[in-house]
Amino acid sequence: MTTVKDRNFDDITHKFAKNIYGTTKGKIREAVVWQDIQSILSRYPDKQKLTILDAGGGQGQIACKLAKLGHDVTLCDISAQMLAIAKSHAESENVSLHYINRAIQDLSEDSAQCYDIVLCHAVLEWVEDGKGLLIALKKLIKPNGYLSLMFYNLHGLLFRTVTLGNFGYVQTGLNKRKKKTLSPDYPRNPDEVYQWLMALDLDILQKTGVRVFHDYMLDKAKQQNRFEELLALEKQFCRQEPYLQLARYIHILAQ
After folding, report:
1. Where would I find the Methyltransferase type domain in this sequence (predicted)?
2. What domains, with CATH codes, occur in the chain?
3. What would the pLDDT profile of 195-208 be if each residue is shown by its tens digit?
């Protein structure tokens, strides 16, 4: 069941559109992750209608893109305000989604439905019991189905914090002071996440770094005026070490 420490974004929903969606970092995140999702879709016969769950899907950008391809997409989110924005977005895109306003953990306990593909992007770092969330997600995946999991990378956070000279934040163990911000509550160590997945018999097929360069650029203006070149480099190096380990997010495809 949901704990009081699982983050609900009803109080700061407006910040997402301004600070994440539509920004260069948001565009890179969506483009790189979409590239991976397309690789999952290519594993199925062309034109096959898939059942897809976007768990913690927020404002529905990825869900709408999948629905446009003809798939049966359900968007689950604990935030009613996020779902309202997702509905408005779906209407503007002229697509139909199913909506569930509840926590992912509760959904896995109450629903008998399983899905061909389950997406869970930028949720793991907001939930206190990360392993418990993965257990809940696995229950929602069909046999031989796929999990698309993206989480906030502890290594990337530490590297960025030190390069900014924020030594006080490092000394606190990267524990943030203000809770109602867009900085995740529980940055995840990738090795720990990989171990959780393996313990659940979920085979990791691919790892991708999301924003391996963008956030470390000193000249912020070039994030916009050289965006296409930057995006090309992000896509080129996102699966190569050492860049992958220092990405701000890591996206995993598992089966």
Report:
1. 53-148
2. 12-254 (3.40.50.150)
3. 999 999 999 999 99
Binding site listing for S-adenosyl-L-methionine: 29, 56-57, 77, 121
Distance CA 201, CA 203 (A): 6
Phi-psi region of 70 (alpha: psi -120 to 50; beta: other; left: phi over 0): left
Which DSSP helix (H) or strand (E) runs through 73? strand 72-76
- pLDDT 10s digits, 158-199: 998 898 888 887 877 777 665 555 778 899 999 999 999 999
Across the beta sheet with 51-55, the strand order is: 98-100, 72-76, 51-55, 115-121, 141-152, 249-254, 204-210
Helix axis angle, 80-92 to 61-68, nearest 10°:
40
